[in-house]
Amino acid sequence: MTSAQNKMKQADELINKADPEWTVVEDWIKNAKNKVEVLPADASKAKEALYQTQVTTHSPMGAIVFMTGGILIDDGWIRILGSGNAKFNRTLPDWNKGKSFKEFGENPSFLLIADDAVGGFYILNGGALGSDSGKVYYFSPDNLEYEPLDITYSEFLQFCFGNDLEKFYEGSRWKGWRAEVSKLKGDEVFNFYPFLWSKEGSDIDKNARKIIPIAEQYSLNMDLRKQMGFDK
């Protein structure tokens, strides 16, 4: 057994019954301007995911992992990771395993917290992306760069619930996107050709698109960054 796992807290130690953050998150959802769908959690899977994530339910992230199977924004345009659901078959810890850490219990230098239907990823910086640890970055499919959003995880949730997403995603939404995105599974993503970051791919309405597994898109992004010399 690794030393990282020896130091792990049990799920019961991470469940804060006196002051759970979920009541706060629920409040934000009630006042949301954007369409929010909270996917139900499976109790045993939620407990396991909380244990693997090693965050307390006194934090918004722990609350979402423990209380939800994930949260869909704008008919699934943005997917916030929780403890998994038939509609969104990924948990926050499982999705990060092998990407931001090798074994559960390790301290990750970044954490994938959410993603969107066009292959963008929201990442909580743990030191890998810059000196602003605890802030969220957006891996943008239209330039393959990690863009600092200068917001915390809590502020990221409020951004999803209340921000003008039309403006944020200007140029990334094609005509009739909502109907197509609402049929997308939470472990799938639209892949575009020509690539969104290429000069030829800059008009999303003219691009060919197909649905691929998100894991495939993530690997493709990382490979492209290497090929272009971003990641040495």
Describe this structure in words.
The chain has 232 residues and is α+β, with helices and mostly antiparallel strands. Helices cover 32% and strands 21% of the residues. It contains ten helices and nine strands. The chain has helices at residues 3-6, 11-14, 22-30, 43-53, 60-67, 92-96, 153-162, 165-168, 177-181, 214-227, and strands at residues 36-40, 68-73, 78-81, 110-116, 121-125, 136-140, 145-148, 188-193, 208-213. The protein has a seven-stranded antiparallel sheet. A two-stranded antiparallel sheet has the order 8-9. β4 (110-116) and β5 (121-125) form a beta hairpin. α4 (43-53) runs antiparallel to α5 (60-67). The chain is globular and about 55 Å long. The chain starts with a helix and ends in a 5-residue tail after the last helix. The mean pLDDT is 94.
SSE blueprint:
Layout: H1 3-6, H2 11-14, H3 22-30, E1 36-40, H4 43-53, H5 60-67, E2 68-73, E3 78-81, H6 92-96, E4 110-116, E5 121-125, E6 136-140, E7 145-148, H7 153-162, H8 165-168, H9 177-181, E8 188-193, E9 208-213, H10 214-227
Antiparallel strand pairs: 1-2, 2-3, 3-4, 4-5, 5-6, 6-7, 8-9
Helix pairs in contact: 4-5
